[in-house]
Amino acid sequence: MEEATIHEFDFALINEYFTELERQGPGSTEETLRALSFIGNLSSKTRIADLGCGTGYQTMVLARNTPASITALDLYAGSIDKLNATARKLGYQDRVKGIVGSMENLPFQSEEFDLIWSEGAIGSIGFEKGLNHWKGFLKKNGYVALTYESWFTDERPAEIEKWWLDAVPEIATIGHNITIMQKAGYIPLAAFALPETCWTDHYFVPQQARQKEFLKKYAGNKAAEQLVAFMRREADLYSKYKQYYGYVFYIGKKI
Ligand code: SAH
Predict the structure, then answer these.
(1) In 119, 145, 160, 217, which residue has its Cα 20 to 30 A from 104's Cα atom?
(2) Model confidence pTM above 0.90
(3) Residues 202-246: pLDDT tens digits?
(4) Is the CB of 52 under 6 A from ligand 1?
């Protein structure tokens, strides 16, 4: 049987699986802060957009570590409800606002933001397309900081190459992505790979308990079983092929 690809799963089912988890993609507080260390002039006037924010783990890291106002955007309303509830609970409701919207068609004014943040999300609209679209919403000298799936080597085993080409057709090497960023009108300031623990401790390990719960709730449901099998396969492939790919933080400054 042909393996399912991520695009064949129901959006609501994927989101139900993921919104119970703290993070919906690889990453960590430490790496969010490392990326933030490249951004200058953060004040209470700074406006940040966090695109594809999910339930907002990294949004709250940004809120805790900057005095900025943050607009967090995601396509999935369930994640945005959760993000806004967390912001209220932590007392950030006056400067952190989650809204439902699409990263491909942003509901903002031109040059509204000083910083566009996005962890683990740009691959679903395309790296080049996202960088080009988002640039219009950044002030001159504004920053973009995002994570994106990237190859670490020029050649890869066929099994992992196929898996990633199905999920993110444009996946490329770090050097290639830096060139795209520059062509899109940004000065590339930094690119660094997320450490393995961002995938293991912060992404795959917390999923194990969630998978058991999910299979119990959806006993006999083929789509739910296939989704869990898919996520388990993603973890197995990572442990087998992690020297060939990972998430990379790319930080650029609009020219
Ligand atoms: N940044 C979070 C979530 C990453 S998962 C984290 O790192 O934990 C990717 C998120 O992108 C999901 O929440 C998904 O709903 C969102 N997404 C996918 N396509 C989108 C689009 N076109 N516009 C806005 N959000 C989108």
Answers:
(1) 160
(2) yes
(3) 999 999 999 999 999 999 999 999 999 999 999 999 999 999 999
(4) yes
pLDDT per residue as tens digits for the range 59-97 = 999 999 999 999 999 999 999 999 999 999 999 999 999
24 lines ligand 1 (CB under 6 A): yes
84-120 as b/e: b if 16+ CB within 10 A: bebbeeeebeebbbbbebebeebebeeebbbbbbbbb
Q: Which of 18, 76, 146 to mutate to test the pocket of ligand 1 (most atoms within 8 A of CB)?
A: 76
